[in-house]
User: Fold this.
Amino acid sequence: MKDIHFICTYCHKIYSSDHVHPRCDECHEPLEVETVERGTISGGNSLNQTILERYADFSPFVHIDKQLSLGEGFTPLVASPKLSSGLGIKKIFFKNESQNPTWSFKDRGTVFGIQHAIRCGYERIGTVSSGNMAASVAAYGSKAGLRTVILVSATIPMEKLNPISMYGPMVITVDGDYGDIYFRSLDIGKQNGIYFINSDVPFRVEGSKTIAYEICEQMNFETPDYVVVPTSSGGNIRGILKGFEEFKLSGFIDRVPRMICAQASGCSPIYNAYAAKKETISRVDNPETIAHAIENPFPPSGNEVLRKLRIQNGIFVAVSDDEILHAQKKLAEDGIFGQPASAVGLAAVKQLMNRNMVKEDETVVCIITGGGLKYTAVYEKHNLPIFNCSLDNVNSFIAHHA
Amino acid sequence: MKDIHFICTYCHKIYSSDHVHPRCDECHEPLEVETVERGTISGGNSLNQTILERYADFSPFVHIDKQLSLGEGFTPLVASPKLSSGLGIKKIFFKNESQNPTWSFKDRGTVFGIQHAIRCGYERIGTVSSGNMAASVAAYGSKAGLRTVILVSATIPMEKLNPISMYGPMVITVDGDYGDIYFRSLDIGKQNGIYFINSDVPFRVEGSKTIAYEICEQMNFETPDYVVVPTSSGGNIRGILKGFEEFKLSGFIDRVPRMICAQASGCSPIYNAYAAKKETISRVDNPETIAHAIENPFPPSGNEVLRKLRIQNGIFVAVSDDEILHAQKKLAEDGIFGQPASAVGLAAVKQLMNRNMVKEDETVVCIITGGGLKYTAVYEKHNLPIFNCSLDNVNSFIAHHA
Assistant:
């Protein structure tokens, strides 16, 4: 490890680099890795690198174990002329995180977290997840040869369990919501020697920084006006913002984009606190949204997201399931098929333009957090047409209908 | 278009660059783009390029429309120390094509094919597909704003249709097998002005070449002894071999790897012809394999794959569904979750090592053709364990069982 420290995001208490518990002993807010002052991007072609190597100056590690990588990150930034003209906005881009090894952004944080777990001597890892993170930690745990425990809320759609179990971890459905299980896992980890790479461990946040670094490179260091992040636990948006701030500190960019924290209105604890002008979030009772991947009723980084975005003039927004479904179809009709949570960004931009909060001469990047094949029950909502023909009739059918 | 020609892979008849029909008028074998003599790799970081740009010297296009790209290619090459020691082989790598925009290798060929379709003035495209290619052509067709017709065998697992229809094409299930529909589509295309970007159109083969180029770059131009390709229509293995041959011609590599054409024994027309020492393939009656993505009973490039691999001392192999399922689980337990067809490569290597045809001091690259979420009915075959616990009991359950 480099000579780094963890710092509490709220009270600024300092912890040493072998600290594993993700929250402050005093104020119970999340810790983060203290930012190094300046750094540079390793040159060359990303085809021959991992994100750990390319952005090594900005990571907490001196030695990197490349063999723990599955080839995460370096995802495309796709411009959409069609959707930008439809929205009446200057430019909209999609950072397609569904092109990761387990088809969500989680892989970036997992490859960072697992480096730390192994460095600290752990032989068992775990996570508490509503789906994407579970698949990711299971995959990387298997790759690293570690015993892996996945705790999942028993309310998870059943179709999400098998693709986690395929990787070979111990999958346990627990009768409780994500918020309850998250806090319980901290004790379970301590008592059983399991490193829980949960959504807001400092190293997962470090992994999410690389999304910002790549956006900067892909936009030739001209940052967009906004970056929209579908937000659940809050770890990803924290990491992306930290990444932009570090690149500004290092002189790569002139300004940090305004972050948009986008939630589903069926579970929007951070947006609710913002709207009610509160300092801290409150647990959402009976969360319900089609965007299961961001259905966390009591996000562990919620207060910190509130604080950070208020400082940087960020935006908080909540979108309905109808807005999400509409955006999901629009995205697919532009070639990008994301899970419902992935469409929350586009839905948010549309709403914010209608409210005149995002302007037509501005540029936006939306994070596509995970792939559409992750949640197939959503097809029912779209009334998708499928035709049938005999081999002999197909020519005339096409001549008349295509 | 550059000053290129199509050439018949069998009788070598020459066709002009605006030719659309993918097969020779005389001998009915597939056409291919005539190889340019030498080329070079565009430098720089692949994060800021498309595959069309990086390998432009080896593509048939003078002008490239980047806006048709969804960020295909530049997929990881993942080494597996665990599986290589398990197999007793020097090194095994996996080229993970499930990290493409629609989660299969097809996207490479589609982005090439659609350039040609638009250049030739088409406003409608189509494909005949058992799944992966359909999703890919639908996505790129939507991105390009073209009307897209997808012909699918009515025997396709239903779960594959919705994720195709999401992109907005006209999906038609046709009562017939893939082989019948393929040949019918050639007439439908002519009569209705639809460019069918089928599995072996010359430009799709051009796209598959980029898999070889990337492997060369990722292995620092020291090519492996073998590249194993799960093979259905034959277009992908043709493209990968052509890519290696072109890089050898251009002086980037010293030798072309031996290609392994791996099929499922429930549908192995190319392997059958090889085993029977025949010059041409015969249609497989009643194909049946868990690897639906490669279940083509009469592959349009079958004869050409036979010819080319015989010349280069390639290997033909067929693996059972049991071998495929075993390999699929082993792969997932190393962090890579592919659809059953994707596991055919690893299953083939295992069988060939048992038969002493691949040796322990050799190096192999397996192509992971598509992602595991594409075919979820396979979970039933794996007897995946999932546990349940109350929130209060989870700590003691883990203490005793994890």
Remarks:
- The longest strand of chain B covers residues 147-153.
- The domain at 77-101+203-382 of chain B is CATH 3.40.50.1100 (Rossmann fold).
- Chain B touches chain A through 91 residues (CB under 8 Å).
